[in-house]
Design goal:
binds guanosine-5'-monophosphate; HIT family, subunit A; globular; alpha+beta
């Protein structure tokens, strides 16, 4: 596994406080904030604070404490947004893009949580 983390990416700058964000939730290992170009009424980005490029990098290299914190944070955020189906919410979609074919724009792991409207088909095919 070879990942070179670029510490000049925009989310690294948000983590260092060099760029502002609209914070939704924060823990020791995790930060969540609103997407700058929301695609749904709720569009939250959840990132680990550690230098992980994408999901498999995180899943293979992060500590158990980071993974636990990140996973629990996603659950808490869904509950706090009121979108968890188990709490009578209307549901949500989680997306984690990775690499070239996944069309990942920002090379710091982020999960998108999209909710507040019907999100439509799982994958929109390009023409
Ligand atoms: P990706 O395509 O990498 O999965 O998604 C990157 C996301 O980051 C996009 O939805 C984009 O709107 C969002 N984004 C890019 N720059 C910024 C920023 O400076 N602040 C915030 N809050 N979101 C950003």
């Amino acid at each position: 596994m070879q990942y070179d983390y670029d510490d000049q990416n925009i989310f690294a700058k948000i983590l260092r406080g060099e760029i502002p964000c609209q914070k939704v939730y924060e823990t020791q290992h995790t930060l969540a904030f609103s997407d700058i170009a929301p695609k749904a009424p709720h569009h939250v980005l959840v990132i680990p604070k550690g230098p992980y490029v994408c999901y498999d990098h995180f899943a293979r290299a992060a500590s158990d404490a980071e993974i636990l914190d990140y996973t629990r944070s996603i659950g808490t955020i869904c509950a706090e947004l009121g979108v968890a189906p188990g709490d009578d919410g209307n549901g949500y979609r989680m997306i984690a893009n990775a690499g070239h074919d996944g069309v990942q724009e920002v090379p710091h792991l982020h999960v998108h949580i999209l909710a507040g409207r019907n999100i439509g088909p799982m994958v929109m095919m390009r023409p």
